[in-house]
Amino acid sequence: MCVLSRPQDYKELFNYYHAKLCNVIECIFGVFKRCFSVLGHPQEYLLDDQVCLVSALAVIHNFIRVYNLNDIAKDLDDSEGNQTPGENERQEPQDEHVRPTLADKQGHAAECRDQITCAMWRDYRP
């Protein structure tokens, strides 16, 4: 018999919630991949464009769910293969001094994570 224990500190609490969130996100992407075949293939677009694509497909998916537009969903799924990969690709700016470095981004992300984790632990009621 498996006995689940409660998180003992803020790190365990964060890891628990993080794992739950990852499961939900994986399920959502599974639904998106079934609805929009473009997500089932390797992308040749810039990362920023891929982020916009996923956001746009989320909006379309939610619109279809709200209005139950089965015919439109089928049409969208059938027409996705028509565009040539890289057709709308744009060049990334080459000036590295303008953009933050990976280390800067990772440091900022770690600070945000720690702030969120501490707030979650303060609010945690076992």
Plain-language structure description:
This is DDE Tnp4 domain-containing protein. It comes from Russula ochroleuca. By secondary structure, the protein is mainly α. It has one domain (10-79, 102-123). It contains four helices and no strands. The protein has helices at residues 10-35, 47-67, 70-79, 102-123. Helix 1 crosses helix 4 (102-123). The longest helix has 26 residues, at 10-35. The two termini are 22 Å apart. The model is unreliable at 82-93 (pLDDT under 50).
Short description:
The chain is 63% helix and 0% strand. The chain contains four helices and no strands.
Largest sheet: none
Low-confidence stretches: 82-93
- Enumerate how many helices there are, as a single number: 4
Q: Hey, roughly how much beta strand do the residues contain?
A: under 5%
Please estimate the helix content: 55-70%
Number of strands: 0
Global mean pLDDT: 79
Structure class: mainly alpha
Query: How much is the radius of gyration in Å?
Result: 20 Å
Distance between the termini: 22 Å
**Envelope shape:** extended
How many domains make up the coordinates?
Answer: 1
What is the string of SSEs from the N terminus onward? Answer: HHHH
Supply the key terms.
extended, DDE Tnp4 domain-containing protein, 4 helices, mainly alpha, 126 residues
